[in-house]
Hints:
By secondary structure, this protein is mainly α. The protein has a single domain (16-507), classed as Amino acid/polyamine transporter I (Up-down Bundle). It has helices spanning 16-27, 30-42, 49-74, 78-121, 147-154, 158-174, 178-204, 209-216, 227-240, 247-252, 261-289, 298-311, 317-354, 358-376, 392-434, 443-471, 492-507; strands at 2-3, 9-10, 130-132, 142-144. A two-stranded antiparallel sheet has the order 1-2. Strands 3-4 form a two-stranded antiparallel ribbon. α1 crosses α7 (178-204), α3 (49-74) packs parallel to α9 and α7 (178-204) runs parallel beside α11 (261-289).
Amino acid sequence: MYLAPDGVSRGQWKTRLGFILAASGSAIGLGNIVFFSANAYRFGGGAFYLPYLIALFAMGIPVMILEFGLGNFTGRAFPESLYRIAGKKGEFVGWWAIFNAFFITMYYITILGWVFGMLTGAFGDLWKESLPVPAFGLEEGVLDNPYAYFFRMLSTWQPVLFVLLVWIFNVIIVRRGPETIEQATRIFVPLMWIFMIVLIIRGVTLTNGFEGVMLLFTPDFSVMKDSAVWQGAFSQIFFTLSLGFGIMTAYASYLPKKSDLTQNAFITSFLNCGFEYIAGLAVFSILFAFAMVPRASTLAMMFFILPKGISQLPGGLQAVIPFGTMFFILLLLAGLTSSVSLVEALVSSMRDKFGWSRWKTITVAGCFGFIGSAVFALPQIVNPGLQDNGTLGFTILDFVDHWAFSYGLLIIGLFECILVGWIMGADTIRAHLNSHSRMRLGIWFDALIKYIIPLALLFVLGYSIKNEITDGLYGTAFSENYNEPYRFMRYFPGIVLAFWLLSSTLLSLRLTRKGKYESS
């Protein structure tokens, strides 16, 4: 058992391999399987790789090293780590990150509930040509599959049950911290790689499948003049490596002080990006074989486009059912390794703050988390015509995802670099990293953390805000297609922002472990 600097007992990874599998499993999620491929298609195929690789080495790996170093240096989760280097202002940023991550956790687990539901359908109904969808009031009353199966499931209370099961899985896996997380990822991560390799082999052996792979690696360099390509690459790297969630800081806090953090960061990053590359092979080969166009939408790719491609595999249901089942099991495993890390980031932060037992912390987090996830699964119909999102839960998810994912993580990364680079001192964290690492970091690391990465993040954020203003602030106007009682949703982003600010401020107040405010 590892003792943190103040003598509080914490868990510890049993092996270095277990930590790397857990960290890479956190980074490898639903977005790796489908969103990377969609972005690559949208931004010129192989031409997307150059900005992607520049973003990986200029921002992704350095921030990963920083988060590993911060957690290991302080022996604490994200909010407490930032408090120890920057005081209450640092802790405010830390709790902002945790609340941002908790909102993402709640809707991420809802999506996993939908994956669970699609998995049950993969044994039969999902592959029927069409199904009636009476709940949405369509004229014809039917939709082609897999659209029909997904929306019919979405309009019922079944997803709430699936969400409950996914939360139970998460609670079981994090019940003993790094010990049980390591046990689960030792099984899940290798299975993910095996299933993905099987899908690649099937995809490239389809007629025209190999041409799809060639499209992925054929660059259209003319698109690189578009600043949106660079924005997409830098955003993709930040999201795919689980940066800005507080995850990597929490995971590294369970490592021995003599760990080689720099090398671990490189290995974790390469495993994650390697998985994205091979996922691209599977996705492009299957889609090209059936002349299907990917969209830059994770949900559409997961639930509509790729299942539609799988449904057209030669060999009938005898081939479609096992490959379709394998696909959704792959999504579920990838999602669980990520959701478990998100839950652990919250649990470790709460334990550091209040000194609660792990079971008490998990119970509180799990109950509130399930309620939030259930909200995202609400089946009330707000748009009978399906022009937009259809259900109330889906609409709320869309709003929260836009603000928490597209802006929250980048803002957190910006302040994280400022706090570590300018207040703690980039040279201080570099000295800690170099003390036990084979790969020694030079002064260039300080320059990246203090200048280059903050400027890159400011560029991405500025470009996004400019587009937001030009196109109309997302979520402020509510579609006329929606039912009147639900038009209040135009105020939802402001409500969420106010909640984040208030909650982060309250939790930034210093509390003793007995729950009393400190006088200082």
